[in-house]
Write a structure and sequence with these properties.
Length: 723
């Protein structure tokens, strides 16, 4: 009966709305109380009114908490009006011609809201007894103002854990009136903070969404204590403003590190007037809806002075009538024109979205590339005008060089020189100059000259950018003779390189025996050789060749024949047919055993085996040598029998005198021709009648003894082996 009585009392109050002067809007918030009492909340009902309304509104305001599913009144309470009026705000039109000052009239009451009492899963809402009058609006007829706040049982926390980011509540910051311009895009920001303010808020633990909502008013005849306000013709919740509705931000709402978010809403109204609008802020956590906070607001649409048009036109510097391209040549300037002669207009120039300081004229002269725009602000206009972006591109001047096929630019007598350009850009025009004087007919990439001087060329590319080469100096050359120094004669055995010298330097030597700039007699061979020096360097105005002969002398002919062997105390003539005639000298060594060591064919009578060398020198001092061995044959004592029976007498076959032949080769064969003994070298090992450590049978054996490896004299015979 108590709840029913409270409901009837609350409904009866709705029939007699409390009257103020002007109410622009309001909101109901649940605030977190800094107290040790669990489930403690402060209920704050705020009206935005003119100053006269404070005394007109009652000192206490009745509010009720209703169950959502059946609109049953669960609790009613009275909130006390705040005693201070220093909280206020002023909304000013953009041209400063109009303003609305309003104050915040707050009614507050502290409650204990436990989930044991408020446990219905569909939640509960708080509304106030209707107050009025609403500031007259051109879109709704209802005068009474009812505010609304819904919450879920899951939103009722015993304490707000400061360590948990998501345990906080959204709160509107006071604001309720704004000016818009007719037929212009306008916006304002609905400020929301977390209470208590926390960091670490994400779209998962603190998600907000904003929608347009019809303003609310009283419902005297219904079971629900509020209803949507009555729209005038042409308006609805989908079109609260003439020409459309507010564009609201889409989730997720991003909170700053201070736990604050700006919800920017915008619209483009199409006629003037005052319009009441509503917004509903939904608060969710982990996908669960926790609260709905309603706010009523008013918009006044005025006619605003239009901004001046903002455009940019490019021209030559100081000549705005001559348009130019958006490409700036290196080192050049371009003029940006935003329209001169507009009174009471402020110009702000930007490059790459950065304000250019101290540039407030309608003309801007620039040398840098970038994206330029100008913002025009007219005194009394509500909006600025921003030009489309004009992109300027800095184009490098074309690079050009001059060259000629003759390094150094040498112009030979009675000849011409072709000058060629190398350009970094295609599609260019040419202008040639000699000693800084224009050559009127020289306008191609190649210029052929017959005069000395400093030549340069200017090129103009397709962007009208100009590049100029450095001067290329053409100087007169002189013809020079080609010379080739004589080459000294050499013997064919000479391996020493002979330097070749030609003039002018830098030519090419060729011929047999020539390597680089040197002549090698031993590679050319004996004979007379023709060598050439060719010089093909037009820098010296010389092209041609000259020759020189190089004589390489053959060596004397000498051949002493095969080695010879003579008996002891015998003689032999050396080089018997080797007299080459006049102009040759002969030198034999060693002189021992020779009758004349300077004769071409001396008589040799050596006491021991001797190798003689002959050195022949011709008239060119070319030499040749050869050697011959004269071997002295002495007798060797060869036993014809030996008895290897171990009695110590003739047990081995010993050759007497063999030590005179250190390179002697001794072989013994059995009667079947098998080798049973072999020895060579200086230290003789006597034949002991064994083969492979086994005694050989008694019998006759054949021997062969060569005193020298290549000697023609060989001892052959038989030896008898007895036991």
């Amino acid at each position: 009966m108590r709840s029913l009585f409270g409901l009837m009392l609350f409904l009866s109050l709705s029939y007699v709305p409390l009257r103020a002067q002007r109410i622009y809007g309001g909101q109901i918030d649940r605030q977190i109380l800094n107290t040790t009492l669990p489930y403690s909340y402060g209920i704050v009902c705020t009206f935005f009114t003119d100053k006269a309304a404070y005394t007109t509104l009652p000192s206490n305001l009745r509010l009720g908490i209703y169950r959502k599913k059946d609109h049953q009144l669960i609790r009613e309470f009275s909130a006390t009006k705040s005693s201070y009026t220093n909280q206020s705000k002023t909304a000013t039109s953009c041209d400063r011609s109009s303003n609305v000052e309003y104050i915040f009239v707050k009614y507050t009451e502290n409650l204990i809201l436990t989930p044991q009492v408020f446990n219905d899963p569909e939640g509960y809402y708080i509304v106030n007894a209707p107050v009025g009058p609403r500031n007259p609006a051109d879109n709704i007829t209802s005068s009474d103002v009812v505010l609304y706040h819904w919450f879920s049982p899951q939103y009722l926390w015993e304490y707000f854990d400061p360590a948990e980011a998501g345990k906080t509540a959204p709160q509107w910051l006071p604001d309720s009136f704004n000016f818009f311009c007719n037929n212009a895009e306008s916006n304002f920001s609905l400020m929301v903070v977390s209470d208590p303010q926390k960091t670490g808020l994400t779209s998962n633990n603190f998600n907000l969404s904003l929608t347009n909502k019809t303003p609310l008013t009283s419902n005297p005849s219904g079971s629900v204590p509020y209803q949507n306000a009555q729209w005038k013709t042409g308006f609805s919740e989908n079109q609260m403003l003439p020409g459309g509705n507010f564009v609201v931000p889409q989730p997720p709402v991003i909170f700053s590190s201070q736990g604050q978010a700006n919800l920017v809403v915008s619209a483009r109204p199409t006629r003037t007037g005052v319009f009441s609008v509503g917004f509903l802020l939904r608060h969710s956590r982990a996908g669960v809806l926790l609260s709905e906070i309603y706010r009523e607001y008013q918009i006044q649409v005025e006619e605003c002075l239009p901004p001046p048009p903002a455009t940019i036109r490019l021209s030559e510097v100081g000549n705005p009538q001559t348009t130019v391209s958006s490409k700036i040549c290196e080192g050049k300037s371009v003029q940006l024109n935003a329209g001169a002669g507009q009174p009471n207009v402020k110009y702000e120039w930007f490059r790459n979205n950065t304000l250019i300081s101290n540039q407030n004229d309608s003309v801007l002269v620039v040398t840098e590339e970038g994206s330029y725009k100008v913002v025009l602000t007219k005194t009394g206009a509500c909006f600025t005008s921003t030009s489309p972006t004009t992109a300027l591109l800095l184009v490098p001047n074309p690079q050009v060089t001059v060259s000629s096929p003759i390094a150094g630019g040498i112009l030979c007598p009675n000849d011409s020189l072709k000058l060629t350009t190398l350009v970094s850009e295609p599609l260019v025009r040419y202008q040639w100059f000699r000693n800084n004087a224009l050559l009127p007919t020289a306008n191609t990439a190649i210029y052929v000259t017959t005069q000395a001087g400093a030549y340069s060329v200017k090129v103009i590319d397709q962007n009208q950018c100009v590049g100029e080469s450095n001067p290329y100096v053409v100087s007169l050359g002189q013809n020079q003779p080609i010379t080739f120094h004589p080459i000294p004669s050499r013997c064919v055995s000479d391996t020493t390189a002979i330097p070749l010298i030609g003039s002018p330097l830098g030519g090419l030597f060729s011929g047999k025996g020539v390597i680089g700039e040197k002549f090698y007699p031993h590679k050319a061979g004996a004979g007379i050789h023709e060598l050439s020096y060719r010089f093909d360097n037009p820098n010296f105005c010389v092209i041609g060749a000259t020759n020189q002969t190089a004589e390489v002398w053959a060596l004397p002919t000498v051949d002493l024949g095969n080695d010879q062997f003579i008996s002891q105390d015998a003689s032999i003539q050396l080089n018997a047919n080797g007299n080459l005639g006049v102009g040759y000298t002969y030198q034999w060594s060693p002189p021992q055993g020779l009758d004349d060591d300077s004769a071409p064919s001396p008589i040799a009578s050596p006491e021991v085996t001797t190798e003689y060398q002959l050195l022949i020198t011709d008239s060119h001092n070319c030499t040749a040598t050869d050697t011959v061995l004269i071997g002295i044959i002495r007798g060797i004592g060869i036993p014809d029998v030996f008895t290897p029976n171990g009695d110590g007498i003739n047990d081995t076959w010993v050759l007497h005198g063999a030590e005179e032949y250190p390179e002697a080769e001794i072989m013994v064969f059995d009667r079947w021709g098998s080798l049973v003994y072999y020895h060579t070298g200086t230290k003789q090992v006597a034949f002991d009648g064994t083969y492979q450590s086994k005694p050989l049978p008694i019998g006759v054996y054949v021997y062969t003894i060569k005193t020298e490896p290549q000697a023609s004299h060989t001892y052959r015979g038989q030896v008898l082996l007895l036991r």
